[in-house]
Amino acid sequence: MSTLTLEDSDAADPHEHGPAGPLYVPVRLGSAGGHHLRFMRTPRGVRTAVAFTSLRRLTDALGADARWIRLAEPALRTLAAPLGVTVLTVDPQLTAPAPAVPRAPAAVAQPCARRGWDPDAVGVLRLTGAAAAVWSAVTAVHAFID
C-alpha cells in the first residue's frame, strides 16, 4: 500500500516508478445515474482517494460486487482536488468489512387478546373521562333544543 499526497507528487523524482497505466477506482452510482468517486479514510481519519493496480486487488479488498472505473492517477487527482481530497492511497490492503444488514424478525401471528366482543359495538366510539362528560353535555343540550 502506498499513500501519496499532492505535495509528494510534485516533489517526486521523475525517474521513480509510480503506478503505471490506468488504475481501478471504486465508484458508487449517484442519484442521477452517474458515477461518483468513493472516498475512504486513513487510519488517522484523513479522507483519501483510493485506487487499485489490478481488478483482483480491488475485488479482494472491496468485494466482487464493487463498482469501478478506470482512471489515470492525474485524472483521479484532478477529480478529487475540488472536494478537498489531496491524499491518494494505492492498493490498500486493510479494509473494514461491510456492515451486516440486520434482518427484521419474522412476524408471528398473535392470538386475539380480547374474546367475546359485542358485534353491536363494532364501529361505536368509546369515550372515557372528560370526553365522556363533554359528550353527555352535548347530547343533553341537543335533547333540550329538539
Structure explained in plain terms:
- The chain is of the alpha+beta class.
- The protein is 26% helix and 21% strand.
- It contains 4 helices and 7 strands, in the order βαββββαβαβα.
- It has helices at 6-11, 55-62, 73-80, 130-145, and strands at residues 2-5, 23-29, 35-37, 39-41, 47-51, 67-71, 87-90.
- The protein has a 4-stranded mixed beta sheet with strand order 1-7-5-4. Strands 3-2-6 form a 3-stranded antiparallel beta sheet.
- The chain is elongated.
- The model is unreliable at 11-15 (pLDDT under 50).
Short description:
The protein has 146 residues and is α+β, with helices and mostly antiparallel strands. It has four helices and seven strands; from the N terminus they run E-H-E-E-E-E-H-E-H-E-H. Strand 2 (23-29) and strand 3 (35-37) form a beta hairpin.
Q: What is the percent of helical residues?
A: 25-40%
Assembly of the depicted chains: single chain
**What global shape is seen?**
elongated
What fraction of the residues are assigned to beta strands by DSSP?
Answer: 15-25%
SSE string: EHEEEEHEHEH
The first-to-last residue Cα distance is 89 Å
Largest β sheet strand count, sense and barrel closure:
4 strands, mixed
Which secondary-structure class do the elements indicate? alpha+beta
The low-confidence runs, each spanning 5 or more residues with pLDDT under 50, are: 11-15
CA-based gyration radius: 32 Å
DSSP helix count? 4
**Mean pLDDT level:** 74
Total strand count, please?
7
How are the strands ordered across the major sheet? 1-7-5-4
